[in-house]
Specification:
The chain contains 14 helices and no strands. It has about 280 residues and is mainly α. The protein is globular and about 55 Å long.
Amino acid sequence: MSTEAPSALRADACPDPEVLAAYIDGRLTPGERTTIERHLAGCPECRDLVAGSVEAIDEMARVAVPRPPRTRLWVGLGAVLAAAAAVVMAVRLNQPSPYYVPEMAQLAAVQSDTRAIEPRLSGFRYAAPPSITRGPADAHNLELTATAEKVRAEIGDHDGVNAEAARGVTYLVDGDADRAVDSFERATASASAPPRMLSDLAAAYLQRGRPDDAERALAAAERALGADAHLHEAAFNRALALERLGRTTEAVQAWRDCAAHEPDGQWAAEARRHIDRLTHAG
């Protein structure tokens, strides 16, 4: 790697294409590989880019004619392809798609300066929290709302927990926390509900904001973390629930844990802002 590589491997930025290429063909140091793998774990766009690149290389290798009979070049290419494919498969198996249904990808792709809700939803990139000084009608990003309605229409009356959870996400983005909670409660009724659905249920409770919803959110987030201790969205929602419950000491520690373990620098910075507010309050 060149001396410029570290700047392209910041946890809060997508790596340069040449860095991902070096990752695929095994030219990174162990430390650099770890940084890339942490980024891939939370970035579906880069995961797709790596997977697509490996598939394209594999396709070119398979259709190459004539195939060199066991030349060093061909054997080396085969080893690189095998290693790259193994890496991508490992990432894919350990990090399933963040979208409950494919239609959700277009909603997560909407660019916005602020996110629809303060709690954290699975599969969405960082955006600043909505301003508490604006009214509900002003807090909605129009493109987000329109896309949420479009996605919900495309899901239609599809059955299953994934479709139900996806509807819950669209309701949250669209400003209907009551229906979002209903959808997520149905999606997570099973004892084996996926952790990210439980985390999104916590987000729905926090957004709805009824008297007991912060307690419900805390329980859902802790259940999610019990199944996946490294689920950053659940850790964020747990800290936010503790803060809203007025359990300041626990909330500060939870936010510190978020800041320490969050690979995305923007989410980590937001956690630190919560710490500053809580420690300087009063």
